[in-house]
Design brief:
By secondary structure, this protein is of the alpha/beta class. The protein has 11 helices and 8 strands. It has a 4-stranded parallel β-sheet with strand order 2-1-3-4, with helices on both faces. The protein has a 4-stranded parallel β-sheet with strand order 6-5-7-8, sandwiched between helices. Helix 1 packs antiparallel against helix 2. It holds the Pfam family Ferrochelatase.
């Protein structure tokens, strides 16, 4: 008799503290910022960074960040709640097709539920085939690559390795572009059109891109495809990069500086969307929706609107379902493409 191979899909996002308190935030930040993919450096640079991280950052930042989490925290972290919603809705979408044999799970690169722990759990429950879906449309060595690293580390510890596939990126997938365009169009239909659409992405140090990280190219491609889909002229939108950290130059133009410049040059209203985030989180709900609003209005702008992430919208769940079919359909006899 042929071996029965159970199939799982694991949706993986960055991570979040377990609780909105300084202890939990410190534990999360230590795991996140200790990853060499996130903050690169060898030998002396690495030792220096770890000294700064453990001696300064982890003693000063957790209390401040915990207060920010408390401002957006309900019964759980928004990112974890949204990821759970995405898992639930994707499972429902697959089940509604009839004859579905795929089970959907969640995992985090940092924090809980951890990716390696999730893979171990799947192995113990008899899953032999696993599709890992990083919830990052645009590939970066700082976000997507750590997921590959953890999968490799898990496999190295196995005698009978699992059959694991990963989705590398979907920044230009037609259904992703359609979902973003639909989100923007629906928001503007409800609230009206602003002077400028600011398409803001999480930044990375410029030197990472100079060394070959394709992230900026992926971001610019997404922006071009979405604005083309919406029929927007080049004069009514701009791509920017947010959340720079430390003294190094990061990808430009910077979101906060751009918002100030726009307001001072007479732009009265802006919509801001963050396509790299498939779930709203501290960065979008606090930095983008609140802090950057203050930057824009403080420089003379009148109307600032944040367009929420795709979260568990039907269009995004449709994209996820299609990615499952495209990357794992042959495992369960459901091979078809819906890139339209």
């Amino acid at each position: 008799m042929a071996e029965q191979k159970k199939t799982a899909v694991v949706l993986v996002n960055l991570g979040t503290p377990d609780k909105p308190d300084a202890v939990s935030v410190k534990r999360y930040l230590k795991e996140f910022l200790s990853d060499q993919r996130v903050v690169e450096g060898k030998c002396v640079k690495r030792l220096f960074w770890l000294a700064v991280l453990n001696g300064i950052i982890l003693n000063l930042r957790p209390r401040k960040v915990a207060k920010l989490y408390q401002s957006i925290w309900e019964d759980d972290s928004p990112m974890r709640k949204i990821l759970d919603d995405q898992v639930r809705d994707l499972q429902l979408a697959l089940d509604q097709e009839g004859g579905n044999s795929i089970t959907v799970f969640s995992a985090m690169t940092y924090g809980t539920p951890g990716l390696k722990d999730r893979l171990e759990e799947l192995k113990e429950h008899g899953y032999r085939r696993v599709l890992v879906v990083p919830m990052y449309p645009q590939y970066s060595a700082t976000t997507t690559a750590p997921i590959y690293d953890q999968v490799a580390q898990f496999q190295l510890a196995q005698r009978y390795v699992l059959d694991i596939r990963l989705v590398n990126a979907f920044y230009d997938h037609p259904l992703y572009i359609e979902a973003l365009a639909q989100s923007i169009a629906e928001h503007r239909e409800l609230h009206g059109v602003t002077d400028k659409l600011v398409i803001s992405y999480h930044g990375i140090p410029k030197e990472y891109a100079d060394k070959g990280d394709p992230y900026p190219e992926h971001c610019h491609a997404t922006s071009a495809l979405v604005t083309e889909k919406l029929g927007l002229g080049d004069d009514v939108w701009i791509s920017t990069f947010q959340s720079r950290f430390g003294p190094k130059e990061w990808l430009q133009p910077y979101t906060d500086k751009t918002l100030q410049k726009l307001a001072k040059s007479g732009t009265q209203s802006v919509d801001v969307i963050c396509p790299a985030f498939t779930a709203d989180c501290l960065e979008t709900l606090e930095e983008i929706a609140e802090e950057n609003r203050e930057e824009f209005e403080g420089a003379g702008g009148q109307t600032y609107r944040y367009i929420p992430a795709l979260n568990s919208s039907p269009a995004f769940i449709h994209l996820l379902r299609t990615l499952v079919h495209e990357h794992a359909g042959d495992w369960v006899g459901q091979v078809h493409s819906e890139k339209s």
